[in-house]
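Saturday, quiet lab. Running sequence design on the C-alpha cells for the scaffold JK sent over.
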C-alpha cells in the first residue's frame, strides 16, 4: 500500500512541479538507503558486515545487484511519467519471479512449494490486474465516445442555431 501511494505521489510531483524523474529517483533511493542504514545500526546487523568472508566475485555480484536495482528505478520513474501507475506497478510484480529464475540457473537454488505458490499468486494477481485494467479502459473509452458524440451533437445544434440567415427581402434591398 505504501509503495503504491509513493508511486501516486511521485507521478503527482512529476506532473505538478515538472521535476526530472532522475532527480526524484535519486532522492527517493537515497532516503530508502538512509532508512536501511538506520535500521541496520539500530538492530546491530551492521556489525556483521566485517565478518563476511566471501570471495571477490560475491562483492561484484552485490555491486551488480545494486546497479540493477538503480536501473530498475530509473526506468520506473521514467515510466511513471508516461504510463498509468497500475501498469508500472504490474511490471514490478515480476521482480520476484525473475529473481527466482535467476537464482535457479545462476545459484542452483530449488523451487520450493512456497516459492511456486508465490509465483502462482503473483501471476494470478497480475492477470486479474490486466483484465481489470482492460475492462476499465474499455469503459472509459466508451464513456469518452458517448460524451464526445453528445458534445458534438450539441455543438452542431448550437452552431446551426447560431447561423444567421437573413430574410430574402433583406437581400433584395441591398
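Result came back. Writing it out in full:
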Amino acid at each position: 500500500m505504501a509503495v503504491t501511494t509513493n508511486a501516486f505521489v511521485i507521478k503527482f510531483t512529476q506532473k505538478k512541479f515538472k521535476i526530472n524523474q532522475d532527480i526524484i529517483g535519486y532522492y527517493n533511493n537515497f532516503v530508502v538507503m538512509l532508512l536501511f542504514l538506520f535500521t541496520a545500526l539500530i538492530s546491530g546487523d551492521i556489525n556483521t558486515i566485517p565478518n563476511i568472508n566471501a570471495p571477490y566475485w560475491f562483492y561484484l555480484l552485490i555491486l551488480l545487484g545494486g546497479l540493477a536495482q538503480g536501473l530498475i528505478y530509473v526506468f520506473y520513474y521514467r515510466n511513471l511519467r508516461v504510463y498509468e501507475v497500475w501498469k508500472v506497478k504490474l511490471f514490478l510484480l515480476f521482480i520476484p519471479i525473475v529473481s527466482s529464475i535467476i537464482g535457479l540457473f545462476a545459484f542452483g537454488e530449488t523451487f520450493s512449494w512456497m516459492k511456486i505458490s508465490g509465483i502462482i499468486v503473483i501471476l494470478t494477481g497480475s492477470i486479474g490486474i490486466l483484465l481489470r485494467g482492460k475492462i476499465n479502459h474499455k469503459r472509459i473509452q466508451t464513456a469518452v465516445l458517448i460524451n464526445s458524440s453528445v458534445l458534438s451533437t450539441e455543438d452542431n445544434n448550437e452552431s446551426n442555431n447560431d447561423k444567421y440567415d437573413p430574410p430574402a427581402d433583406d437581400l433584395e434591398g441591398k
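Notes for JK: The two ends are 74 Å apart (CA to CA). The chain has a mean pLDDT of 77. Ask whether to fix the surface positions before the next round.
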